[in-house]
Specification:
Blueprint: H1 5-8, E1 11-12, E2 18-23, E3 28-33, E4 38-41, E5 44-49, H2 56-63, H3 75-91
Parallel strand pairs: 1-5
Antiparallel strand pairs: 2-3, 4-5
Length: about 90
């Protein structure tokens, strides 16, 4: 695992055909964008990458989000929304 501050700030979309690769020759990461990576939403262009198909546990622990749970509000509000959604999904 590695932190990539610029790339990690891009939103996740499972269907986005993106690829992140490390080149030891240039000592740099490259991001390749394919289908479904650039989406026009309400007149605004949004960039997406995919972390791949992940379970809720992986998304929450490794990336700090859950699909369909808004990231609005302060940190406490976001943590409570994530915890509530995660527990509800585990019980269903």
């Amino acid at each position: 695992a590695v932190l990539l501050p610029m790339i990690d700030s891009i939103n996740h979309l499972e269907e986005a055909a993106s690829r992140i690769e490390y080149s030891p020759l240039s000592d740099a990461f490259t991001l390749s964008l394919g289908e479904n990576c650039v989406v026009d939403e309400s007149g605004k262009t949004q960039l997406y990458i995919s972390y791949g198909r992940k379970k809720d546990t992986e998304l929450l622990l490794n990336y700090g989000f859950l699909l369909g749970v808004p990231s609005a509000g302060d940190a406490r509000t976001r943590r409570k929304a994530l915890a509530t959604a995660f527990l509800a999904r585990q019980q269903s």
